[in-house]
Design a protein that fits this description.
Strand content: under 5%
Number of strands: 2
Mean pLDDT: 91
Distance between the termini: 16 Å
Number of helices: 11
Largest sheet: 2 strands, antiparallel
Low-confidence stretches: 1-30
Oligomer: single chain
Length: 398
C-alpha cells in the first residue's frame, strides 16, 4: 500500500525524510484521487462486513445468539492480540507463503480458533479453579477478567514492533519467525507483571484495595496504547528515534510512551466531558474515567486504518507537515466517530443498550471490531478485490 509497508502489518516504521518525496515514475497511477478512492473503498468494505457480522454474532436484537457484550468482547480482544502476534511480531511468517485468498482465509481461521479457544480455556477451565474467571460472575465479568490481559498486551507487544523496531533480535542475527517468537516470549513477562499488579486486582473478588479502579486502568493504559500507535506509526517513531542507538530508542520509547500516554489520559478527560455534555457525564459518574479509552479506540482505529488503507499520507511534504496533517486528520476523524457512535450508531444501527443519559453502547466493543476487520481484510486479505484501485498498481499493469 502506498510506497511503504504499513507498520500496522508488523513492519518497523521507516526513517522519516525531511525532504519531499520525488515525483512518481512515469506511467505510475500514484495520483491523489487514486489513493483516496482506494482508502474509501476499503472503508466501505470494512464497515459493511463489520456491521453485517455484528448483526450475526453480537447484535442484542438481531443475533440468534446471546454473546453480547460478553463473551463476544472477550473473544474479540483475544482475536486482536493474536493478529498482533502473527502480524506485528512475526510479520505473518509462514502465512506469507500462501497465495490469496487462501492466505487471508488461513489468517482469519487461525484468529477465530485462537480467540474462541483462549476465551473458553480461561472461562471454562481456569474459571472452575479461580472464581475471578468464572463464567457465572455478574455481567460476564469472568470473561472480562481473562481478556483484560489483552489491554496490556496490545500496548507492550505493539510497542516492541512500532517503537522498538524488534530490538534486540535483528541485532542478534535472528530472522523471522525466530524474531517474533523471541519477542513474544521476552515481552510476555513484563506484560504479565502489569496484568497481575495493575489489571487483575481491579476486577478480582479478593482484592480489597487495588492500585486503580478498573475504569481508571482502562482509560489510563489505553491512552498509553494511543501514544504507542501515534508515535510509532503515525509519527514514524518521532521523537523517540532521536535517542540514537536501537537500545536507547527502545528505552526512550518505553519511558516516553508511559509519560506521554499519561498526559493524553488527563487531556482526554476534559475533552470527553465536552463531547458528552454535563447530563451524560453526571450519569456516568466514576465510569467517566474509562472514556479516554473509548475515545482512544476511535483514534487507534483511524491511525491503523489510515496507515494501511490510505498509505499513511501525506508523504510528499516536509516531515513536520506530513506528521502534523496525519495527526490532525486521524484525531478529527476519531472525535467525529466517537460522537457519531455514542449519539446515534450504537442505539439506532447496532441496537446496543443505553450506557448513560444520551448515549448508548461501548466503543471498546464495536470500534475494536472495526479494528479487527481492518487487520483481517486490508492486511490479511491484502484488500482482496480492490487491488486494481491501489495507487501501487502502475497504469501499464491495468
Amino acid at each position: 500500500m502506498a510506497t511503504r509497508t504499513p507498520p500496522a502489518a508488523g513492519s518497523p516504521a521507516p526513517a522519516a525524510d525531511p525532504t519531499p518525496d520525488p515525483p512518481a515514475p512515469e506511467g505510475s497511477a500514484e495520483v491523489p484521487s487514486r489513493w483516496v478512492l482506494f482508502g474509501l473503498a476499503n472503508l466501505v468494505v470494512v464497515v459493511v462486513v463489520s456491521v453485517a457480522s455484528w448483526y450475526l454474532l453480537a447484535d442484542p436484537e438481531l443475533s440468534p445468539w446471546s454473546f453480547y457484550p460478553l463473551p463476544f468482547n472477550a473473544a474479540l480482544f483475544w482475536a486482536i492480540l493474536f493478529v498482533v502476534f502473527i502480524g506485528f511480531n512475526a510479520e505473518f511468517a509462514g502465512f506469507d507463503r500462501i497465495r490469496q485468498p487462501w492466505r487471508g482465509l488461513a489468517i482469519a481461521a487461525a484468529t477465530g480458533l485462537f480467540s474462541v479457544g483462549m476465551t473458553l480455556v480461561l472461562a471454562q477451565g481456569l474459571g472452575h479453579i479461580d472464581p475471578d474467571f468464572a463464567v457465572g460472575r455478574d455481567g460476564g465479568l469472568g470473561y472480562f477478567t481473562g481478556a483484560l490481559f489483552v489491554l496490556f498486551g496490545f500496548g507492550t507487544f505493539v510497542m516492541a514492533v512500532l517503537n522498538w523496531q524488534h530490538w534486540p533480535w535483528p541485532q542478534l542475527g535472528l530472522k523471522q519467525p525466530a524474531v517474533g517468537l523471541a519477542e513474544i516470549a521476552a515481552v510476555a513477562g513484563p506484560t504479565m507483571v502489569l496484568y497481575f499488579v495493575i489489571g487483575l486486582p481491579s476486577v478480582s473478588l479478593s482484592s480489597g484495595d487495588p492500585l486503580m479502579s478498573v475504569d481508571t486502568v482502562l482509560g489510563w493504559f489505553y491512552a498509553i496504547i494511543v501514544s504507542v500507535i501515534l508515535t510509532g506509526q503515525t509519527l514514524d517513531n518521532w521523537p523517540w528515534r532521536l535517542a540514537g542507538s536501537p537500545g536507547r530508542v527502545a528505552l526512550a520509547a518505553t519511558i516516553g510512551n508511559v509519560a506521554f500516554g499519561t498526559l493524553l489520559y488527563f487531556a482526554a478527560l476534559p475533552l470527553v466531558r465536552v463531547l458528552l455534555g454535563s447530563l451524560t457525564v453526571d450519569g456516568l459518574g466514576d465510569t467517566l474515567h474509562q472514556y479516554p479509552a473509548q475515545l482512544g479506540v476511535c483514534w487507534a482505529f483511524w491511525m491503523i486504518f489510515w496507515a494501511n488503507a490510505f498509505g499513511n499520507r501525506p508523504t510528499g511534504f516536509g516531515t513536520a507537515t506530513n506528521l502534523a496533517i496525519r495527526t490532525g486528520v486521524t484525531l478529527a476523524l476519531a472525535v467525529a466517530t466517537f460522537v457519531f457512535y455514542y449519539r446515534f450508531a450504537a442505539e439506532h444501527i447496532l441496537h446496543e443498550p443505553a450506557a448513560a443519559p444520551g448515549i448508548s453502547g461501548n466503543a471498546l466493543g464495536f470500534i475494536d471490531w472495526l479494528v479487527l476487520w481492518t487487520l483481517l481484510y486490508v492486511v490479511g486479505f491484502g484488500s482482496l478485490g480492490l487491488r486494481r484501485l491501489s495507487p501501487e498498481v502502475p497504469v501499464a499493469a491495468e
